[in-house]
Amino acid sequence: ISKREYKLDSGSWYSGNTTYNFTNVTNGTHTVYLRVTDGAGNTHTVSTTAVVNLNQQILGGEVHTGWNLTGWIWEYYNNTWQLAGYGRTVGGNLSAITTSKYDLTHLKYLNVNIWLSLSETQSSSTVKVFICSTTTNCIQLSTHTYGKADDAKSYTLTHNISSYQGSYYIKVACSQVAYYSQTNLGAVRLST
Fold first, then answer.
1. Cα angle for residues 5, 9, 14 (degrees, 5° grid)
2. How confident is the model at residue 141 (pLDDT cuts 50, 70, 90)?
3. Which residues, 6 or more positions from 50, have their beta carbon under 8 angstroms from its beta carbon?
4. Is the pLDDT reported for residue 123 higher than 70?
């Protein structure tokens, strides 16, 4: 073999030795091609299909950008970034939506982690999770209402998103009905 070349999908051919590393590969099904040429100039091409499923943390840990916020503020607590929602007014509404879309194709789950600290007088906190084709055209995935019995606890809301194809914004909204309550958005992850 005098020459090896590699290609991903309909991209360009790249020369390499025995391996080649593709960068910036997106989630989804891809075709990888290998073309070899012998000393006489004869070529032979083979291909294989590979599915790339990258788990993406889009909030929490070291991730603390990429969201438009209403009511929530960024807070670094226990070595992780989170959104802290402090209820300063009765009926305080909190909203966070990603500033860019995420390709949900080939992904299976959207996990949202929340933590509640309800005030003595607060009867409930309601958390809603959405995916949005535009910043205003949203599909509600779930609504969860928490009461005083749920106080000082952490919850992970798991949504099966395998039926959604294409790119969407992720949105989380919360309504708090009393002063000095807190609903924190601790992590948001996309996974396979």
1. 25
2. very high
3. 29, 30, 31, 32
4. no
